[in-house]
Write a structure and sequence with these properties.
- By secondary structure, this protein is of the alpha+beta class.
- The chain has three domains: about 1-60, protoporphyrinogen ix oxidase, domain 3 (Orthogonal Bundle); about 90-135, no CATH class; about 135-225, no CATH class.
- Helices cover about 30% and strands about 15% of the residues.
- It contains eight helices and six strands; from the N terminus they run αααααβββββαβαα.
- The strands form two sheets. A three-stranded antiparallel β-sheet has the order 1-2-3, with no helix packed on it. A three-stranded antiparallel β-sheet has the order 4-5-6.
- A hairpin with a 6-residue loop joins strand 1 (about 90-95) and strand 2 (about 100-105).
- Helix 4 crosses helix 5.
- The longest helix has 16 residues, at about 5-20.
- Mean pLDDT is about 85; it is low at about 125-130.
Length: about 220
């Protein structure tokens, strides 16, 4: 990664991602075992960009199977993508007479009303999961918003967070008490996600596994072949 994309991409993207997904040491992970599709790009094209261009050209020459006839037909009119910033959604309602969804926005130019047949709402990325950066002094590997993924897992006004801490680069964590682990995770969350003066957490449970996630390190494929 550093050879193709540089140190900054490694420290800001790859290291947090590998720590959160594999709980491993990215300097020891096998690219072929852990990220095979990316490994193929460099192998086939000589570089990540060269491999991506090669794959693009191959797909153009050899298109995929025809469109599934069970899918709705493609629109015959052109579709315009319009991105508007600083528009805050104030109200959303259904128009019973037309069946359209009515949206009212607060914009820099004043209130605007929009009617649409279909509306897609995308939740912020942090609602699903948050891979936390160790470079910010945070040792928690990742946090999943369980109550957002599975409604009903938290009481009214509460959010259930599932946190992961430890990994290959922090093996000593298994020697800490449950109270110490809770305190460390709470400290990390107040740096990355919560307000410093947020109420103390309600601890649902703590589980410690000395050996948990398999590591696809260099030589892994030779061992399983």
């Amino acid at each position: 990664i550093t050879r193709n994309l540089g140190d900054e991409v490694y420290f800001r993207l790859i290291e947090p991602f590998c720590s959160g997904v594999y709980s491993g040491d990215p300097t020891q992970l096998s690219m072929k075992a852990a990220f095979y599709k990316i490994w193929v790009l460099e192998k086939e094209g000589g570089s990540l960009v060269g491999g991506a261009l090669r794959l693009f050209n191959q797909n153009r020459k050899n298109p995929g199977p025809p469109r599934d006839p069970r899918l709705p037909p493609k629109p015959k009119v052109s579709v315009t993508c319009l991105s508007l910033t600083n528009w805050k959604l104030v109200d959303i309602s259904k128009d019973a007479s037309t069946g359209l969804t009515k949206l009212r926005y607060s914009t820099p130019e004043g209130n605007r009303n929009v009617s649409a047949r279909h509306v897609v709402l995308t939740a912020p990325a942090w609602v699903l999961a948050d891979l936390l950066k160790q470079s910010a002094g945070v040792t928690t590997l990742g946090t999943i918003y369980s109550s957002s993924l599975f409604p009903g897992r938290a009481g009214p006004g509460e959010i259930l967070l599932l946190n992961y801490i430890g990994g290959v680069t922090n093996r000593g964590i298994v020697d800490q008490t449950h109270e110490q682990l809770v305190a460390q995770v709470d400290k990390d969350l107040r740096v990355m996600l919560l307000k410093p003066d947020a109420p103390a957490p309600k601890v649902v449970g703590v589980r410690v596994w000395p050996r948990a996630i398999p590591q696809f390190n260099l030589g892994h494929l030779d061992k399983v072949s």
